[in-house]
Amino acid sequence: MISILKSLWIVFTHLFKKKITVEYPDEKIILPPRYRGRIILSRDPDGGERCVACYLCAAACPVDCISLQATEDEYGRRYPEFFRINFSRCIYCGFCEDACPTYAIQLIPDVEMSEYNRNNMVYEKEDLLISGQGKYHGYNYYKVAGTAIGGKGKGEAMNEEKPTDFKTLLP
Amino acid sequence: MEANLHWIWIVLGVLIVVLSLAAGLIWYERRLLGWVQERQGPNRVGPLGLMQPLADVIKIFFKEDWIPPFTSRLIFVIAPMITMFTILMSFSVIPFGPTIVVADLNVGLLFFLAMSSLGAYSIVLAGWSSNNKYSLLGAMRGASQMITYEVFMGLSLMGVVMLANSFNLREIVEAQKGLWNVIPQFAGFVVFFIAGIAETHRLPFDIPEAEGELVAGYHSEYSGMKFGMFFVGEYLGIVLISSMITTLFFGGWLGPSFLPGVVWFFIKTMGFITIFILLRGSQPRPRYDQLLGYGWKVLLPIALLNILITGAIVLVIGN
Fold first, then answer.
1. So where are chain A's domains?
2. Which of B43, B281, B283 has the CB atom closest to A4's CB atom?
3. Mind listing the pLDDT tens digit for each residue in B138-153?
């Protein structure tokens, strides 16, 4: 009997406690910076696309929501001709971000992507590309990679020595 | 003619106020339960979510009126009406104010007990006509629970009757002018309160519709407005038991004269409704045999002792 009255009293005092509900549409929550939300494609510091269309993200994707087509520009630089993510399939696992060798594909803390029409959930490259560098500032894939590309010869990359003339190594 | 019009106004007023109060309790209960669980409760429809009952009622009216083909049609349709009917009939004897009473019966208390006993039929018939084992189990539990608790619900009120020397609810209230019945009749109050919870099959005594065990108990097969009638019937039951407690033990409309009697009645009733909802928020559901055993072994002796002692005291003082 006493315990029933005591629990009634405890429940009554809880009427006036602060509510823990976050009233979401009126009151936005700040998601942690590493939250896995909407997927974006970032650019390098020079403004070029980071994506080299290697298909690793599409291969890593467990739900096959990424599709792209590789092509090359006149300097031999690879880039995606189209890059399409079907967000009605995406499970926001972040495997594409893990797989990406150039930090191009990134998940950002944005979850407000509801649509009335299912077809609007399919994002094309122009929807995915942002003008900034995303989470990894100052990283430029072609500036650190050893491969020769238009505008950058062998040995001109960052932290790379000039190619050795192998004939000087002969005994 | 003039007098007839007066009665029509009182009947309509009681009907409308009681029904809209029962509908409003949907919002009140959900909001209060939300608060005790440190949530917000419904707060989106209208200011403070006050339009939530309206939205629920509109929604439930537009639902398909579906009668499953395996049921006994006629009884299936009648059962929810019995709930509404018996509980609304009980409201006719309650004095909301010195003059606001629909039927000033000289056996008002017996009428209330009779009507609440008839309410057991709606559960039994609903569960039986549903032709569903869970519904039948719920109905059996409901029947035995209501029969058990009816016994000492009536017995617990006999002390009040002895003190007031009347079965008329208005006279019972007027007999409490000096001292509310809750003090001399505290045991009767406790027994009546517990029996009232069991009678309205509210949590923690919602054994006929225990959703963890019996889907939804006796109204598993009901949908649309027929389910709505059971639902409103349950809330009406809360209002009824709360106003009976107010009338019998807490002096009905009596109170300091700066507020009219009806307002005092309303305030006291809302207080008991709140306690009903807080009980739902705090107590776990007892086992079925625990409930019946508690009734027969604890509450019945208390009620009988209460009658014995009250009767002895009234006899001694009366002589």
1. 30-136
2. B283
3. 888 888 888 888 888 8
Domain assignment present for B44: no
| Dist. CA B315–CA A3, nearest whole Å | 37
- Cβ contact B37–A21 (<8 Å): no
B279 → closest Cβ in A8, A10, A20: A8
Q: Which CATH architecture has domain A30-136?
A: 2-Layer Sandwich (3.30)
Q: In terms of Cα–Cα distance, which of A66, A46, A47, A62 is closest to A125? A: A66
ipTM rounded to 2 decimals: 0.70
Range of the domain at B291: 65-318
Cα separation, B34 vs B85, in Å, equals: 31
Contact residues, chain A, for B40 at CB < 8 Å: 19, 21, 23
Residue-averaged pLDDT of chain B: 85
Question: Residue B224: left (phi > 0), alpha (psi -120 to 50), or beta?
Answer: left
User: Shortest CA distance to B237 belongs to which of B122, B29, B27, B87?
Assistant: B87
pLDDT digits 0-9 by tens, B14-68: 888 888 888 888 888 888 888 888 888 888 887 888 888 888 888 888 888 888 8
pLDDT average per 10 residues of sequence, chain A (171 residues): 84 85 85 90 87 91 92 86 91 91 90 89 90 86 78 77 82 78
Q: Hey, are the CB atoms on B39 and A20 less than 8 Å from each other?
A: yes
Asked if the C-beta of A169 comes within 8 angstroms of chain B's C-beta atoms, the answer is no
